[in-house]
Amino acid sequence: MPTLRIALAQVNSTVGDIAGNAATVHGWVRRAAEQQAHVVLFPEMMLTGYPVEDLTFRESFVSASRNHLERLAADLDHDGLGGIAAVVGYLDADGPARLGADAAAERGPRDALALLFGGRVVARYYKHHLPNYGVFDEDRYFVAGDTLQIVRLNGVDVALTVCEDIWQPGGPFAVAGLAEVGLVVSINASPYELNKDDVRLPLVRRRGAEARAAVAYVNMVGGQDELVFDGDSMVVAADGTLVGRAAQFDEQLLVTDLDLPSASSDRTGDFGEMHVARLTLDASFPAPAPPVPATLAERLGDDEEVWNALVVGLRDYVRKNGFRSAVFGLSGGIDSAVVAAIAVDALGADRVVGVSMPSGYSSEHSKDDAADLARRTGLDYRVEPIQPMVDSYLSQLKLDGLAVENLQARVRGVLLMALSNQEGHLVLTTGNKSELAVGYSTLYGDSVGGYNPIKDVWKTRVWQLARWRNAAALERGEVEPIPANSIEKPPSAELRPGQLDTDSLPDYHVLDAVLTGYVDTDQGRDDLVAAGHDPQLVDRVLRMVDVAEYKRRQSAPGTKISFKAFGRDRRLPITNRFREGV
Amino acid sequence: MPTLRIALAQVNSTVGDIAGNAATVHGWVRRAAEQQAHVVLFPEMMLTGYPVEDLTFRESFVSASRNHLERLAADLDHDGLGGIAAVVGYLDADGPARLGADAAAERGPRDALALLFGGRVVARYYKHHLPNYGVFDEDRYFVAGDTLQIVRLNGVDVALTVCEDIWQPGGPFAVAGLAEVGLVVSINASPYELNKDDVRLPLVRRRGAEARAAVAYVNMVGGQDELVFDGDSMVVAADGTLVGRAAQFDEQLLVTDLDLPSASSDRTGDFGEMHVARLTLDASFPAPAPPVPATLAERLGDDEEVWNALVVGLRDYVRKNGFRSAVFGLSGGIDSAVVAAIAVDALGADRVVGVSMPSGYSSEHSKDDAADLARRTGLDYRVEPIQPMVDSYLSQLKLDGLAVENLQARVRGVLLMALSNQEGHLVLTTGNKSELAVGYSTLYGDSVGGYNPIKDVWKTRVWQLARWRNAAALERGEVEPIPANSIEKPPSAELRPGQLDTDSLPDYHVLDAVLTGYVDTDQGRDDLVAAGHDPQLVDRVLRMVDVAEYKRRQSAPGTKISFKAFGRDRRLPITNRFREGV
């Protein structure tokens, strides 16, 4: 049985930065070579970043991806790294870059994989299964491949696949089984969802069984716009044994020695659903010595997992967009307190500016709690009272009620944007998912900002995360970042005297239970009532979601709320004219 | 040869308002019956509106669509209208409403067509070709049908198809030809693009030739969110003769008498690409007398066509979202002047509020031009100086340069939103497509608003539209709505003394030529230079588009500029890290 030393490069790629991503590949191939790996695997679309979206449609971008790939192969060889087989995801095209009306297009842009060896691109594979649900729109951008590429490496047959190929039965894994390979390589850009790691291992095992082969599964890590990739790369033997597993949310080179069966078939051509192409790499790899010990990284708990995703997402958004620091309104409430703690974990306290912007309605405890958080975390704390600006509007316009409440939030928004323009910070928004769903926020007010770390987090989980983060600090002997009072006190927007969230909303535990059903799992009014929720409450909450959508229509043209970050693309329904129960 | 009297109901449907849409169908079936029509055709997704987007995923919404359809059939019969065959688009499902990872799903939501007759749904057809490009995302929502339904009506075989079925070769029209039908019905929700009417007639002729049959093509009319449907319904005989054509942008019942061949085939089952199902409607229609005269509506010129699209889009957005009036900043410049004229045409002068918000940098001619437009159009004109509010910020924060420029725009945004909250108007944004593309605007400033009538209009066409609208007024003996000075003067944002757009931007004619290539037709740097543009200019413009994307990242999370309204979904590329020419 030949042994292959396989290195999984679980790394962070940046959309559009082809040169930078190529440099990343170069550096990690060197690290893999230093560990005597025979093969090193990089994630899906490593060279271009993922998702490239409409960049796919630019011929110049496709050319850049293809050209950099060739250059990378040559550069690796030039630097003495041509003897390691490197698998790299990239963007290719064998037809026009923009797909149009012709649904039956057989050529066009490809979500592609290349095998680099000896200074050349020796094999290519085009992704077969294209996902077009949730956060994925790949039918819009890519043409599906129909040829499974098998490469004989050191006497072992290795089938090459990309991401969604492993999520669906049939296709490449089934064909790999018929073609009698020893190993299936799966390169991924698989976004984080809560508990997705609990799904991945059984999935990899199931598909390995379908292919009757070992599976090397490498995933991207890091934040890209609305997505966070959590890594969780792994190697599973043909019998289902977990041989190695990388940590979540960190860059890592996972090196594994795998004993694999010698190649036994040369059959090519038509395998029903796909074609099979084969080639043999003219290389014999020395048996690696000494063997590497197995790495099996521990899984994180739910709250730690979410916290890491939020921190990594924010850190990469700031870095990849060229910012150095962030600013936001620090009210003393739980939402901005949790955003502050995330920002300090992501960027360091010296790059985080929290601005207390009290009005005449702000309570003393709010100002105290904001100052307390600032002391605990060490962030740059400022106080900018808003009453003079609010009064300047009120003395000119005749406003009352909601218009006055919204005015205060908008003055704060203008203030934060002015600081952003003057000092270069990214503005963070601090509204949670529950508030966003029911529209309990002010357009162009507290909704101002380029990134909202908690927009996908229900209010009840915001509290849970605060408690988890404080407990983690205690465990490490550090100061708890979030004041207990911010966690314990009843939430209030403080836009009129004595206001409480419960004046306008049900208790958040009750609210979140209904919203989760309505938004996350598409339940209708009757489903929710059948699930035991009070009918009047359900009607009230659904009505709020409907009105929120209506309010958003006063916002930027075409803006829809999209809860995309954690793998589920749940647009709130446009139901201001559709009443549940009709 | 039997004669069929066919009525095409080119009507306006509203997403989500199933009961209202059913009532519309009822009313127009009655009108068709009064004209002794045998068959009346309604657009795609008539009952639910189009596009329903994520409403598709709600089982309760699918049920509502199905139930209302059955009820509609019964109600029509109850009111003596069961003897006319009504073809109605609706949402159906024969599987789970939410499509997920299983790309091979054979059951699920359907973009469906129903034939109502004698109080019942007698036939259904599921759309075969699902578009997933431009403004369409149908692979995300629907499962494709594979059975062509043919109905024998008064001895004529009629094949039933939906929208995209006519845009692609092969599929339903080819199968209809093999099945030897006399007429193909095509129901559509086909959004407006410039000159799309020039494409439609040859398309209908081409597909009619493929089916060797007459084609009855009915399209929706009216605005729905970012889309505008332009109608342009038509009937084309088997020999390619245009028998009847409806007007653009207006509701209309187009009634046509068609002599059609008697049915000649009974073959059902497998036709290669699709199955064929047949049924005979137990009805013989009396020959209609007297024959209806042919209607052939005249085509509009380009500028008139665009103007109509903008007016209809705004009017329906306001109405369908429950607003009664609109407010916006009236600066005296060309963009807000054109928006004002569109708004007055769409809503009437008494529902339009234009607010002049001069600062210390506003010129006298700007204030004069704004007042002049107000006098010419009769809109509700107000003056709200912003300097006191601007000063209230400046006396608290230390700001200079761009931060001060942006501050002025944001104070105006807060002012407009306060008026919106207090008085209930929809806020209109007035930035043109050229400005948006290069980011020549202020986030949360002049970008504030729920609807932007000219976001898809390049600056050079804004001027052209202004001239066309004034000329049209002269022709009708009316006052020209737009002051000549707003058209002729050099554009300026007036955010600092003596500022002109040309300080920051190339001349708009030069700029638009490059932007059109880069944004509308995906040309890269080298393509644009090869097309004769100055290389330095190209680099400068592309750099501006890149930076604009970067600036938008300071905006709401997940916000992307999407030029969707006119059929092309051109997201500006995220190129702040991809440099053309790499």
TrEMBL record, chains A, B:
GO molecular function list: ATP binding; glutaminase activity; NAD+ synthase (glutamine-hydrolyzing) activity; NAD+ synthase activity
One Pfam family per UniProt: CN_hydrolase
Gene3D superfamilies: Carbon-nitrogen hydrolase (3.60.110.10), HUPs (3.40.50.620)
InterPro entries associated with the record: C-N_Hydrolase, C-N_Hydrolase_sf, Gln-dep_NAD_synthase, NAD/GMP_synthase, NAD_synthase, Rossmann-like_a/b/a_fold
PROSITE patterns in UniProt: CN_HYDROLASE
Enzyme Commission identifier(s): 6.3.5.1
Catalytic residues (UniProt): 44 (proton acceptor), 127 (for glutaminase activity), 163 (nucleophile)
Nucleotide-binding in keyword set: yes
Residue numbers binding deamido-NAD(+): 406, 435, 551
Task of the protein: Catalyzes the ATP-dependent amidation of deamido-NAD to form NAD. Uses L-glutamine as a nitrogen source.
NCBIfam families noted in UniProt: nadE (TIGR00552), PRK13981.1 (NF010588)
Protein name in the entry: Glutamine-dependent NAD(+) synthetase
Organism of derivation: Virgisporangium ochraceum
